[in-house]
Specification:
- The protein contains five helices and no strands.
- It is an all-alpha fold and about 160 residues long.
- The protein has one domain (about 5-155): Ferritin, core subunit, four-helix bundle (Ferritin, Up-down Bundle), CATH 1.20.1260.
- The N and C termini lie far apart (about 45 Å).
- The mean pLDDT is about 95.
Length: about 160
């Protein structure tokens, strides 16, 4: 990658892969969650993730580029870490660990979508900028919801 345009497209493929990978991983997390509010938050994130995939397809279309993913080592690592929590933790520690893992994913997504949004703006991709801004706002709201769950009870338990 030698240009911002190439970096933008590569990162867009990276996050597209990540969102698709999450649709496979999140049901396992929801099943493992022992707290009803956490389970609901994970299920909500799964629905949101499916919506983000559709929005990303619109971003690709606005660029006249086929929607395809590029393997994302970061999300693979976060999913592997979460699988480890599911296998090794139990009880209240499991819920706290799953919540922390979910926030790690949100923080990754926020950083990626924040960069993509700004690059779209610099590159003059107005439609992509608008769509990526929407996703970024939703990711920030999801993270805030998880923070409220952590502070409001899961970590105290």
């Amino acid at each position: 990658m030698k240009t911002l345009a190439e970096l933008f497209e590569h990162t867009l493929q990276d996050v597209y892969y990540a969102e698709n990978a999450l649709t496979k991983a999140l049901p396992k997390v929801a099943k493992a969650a022992g707290d009803a509010k956490l389970k609901q938050a994970v299920e909500d994130h799964l629905k949101q993730t499916r919506g983000h995939i559709q929005t990303l397809k619109k971003v690709f279309a606005s660029l006249n580029v086929p929607a395809k993913g590029e393997k994302c080592d970061a999300i693979e690592g976060l999913i592997k870490e979460t699988d480890g929590i599911i296998k090794e933790a139990s009880g209240k520690a499991l819920n706290a660990g799953l919540l922390a893992a979910a926030q790690s994913v949100e923080h990754y997504e926020i950083s990626r979508y924040g960069s993509l949004r700004e690059w779209a703006k610099v590159l003059g991709h107005d439609e992509a900028h608008k769509l990526l801004s929407k996703i970024l706002d939703e990711e920030k709201a999801a993270n805030s919801k998880l923070t409220d769950l952590a502070v409001g009870g899961i970590n105290k338990k």
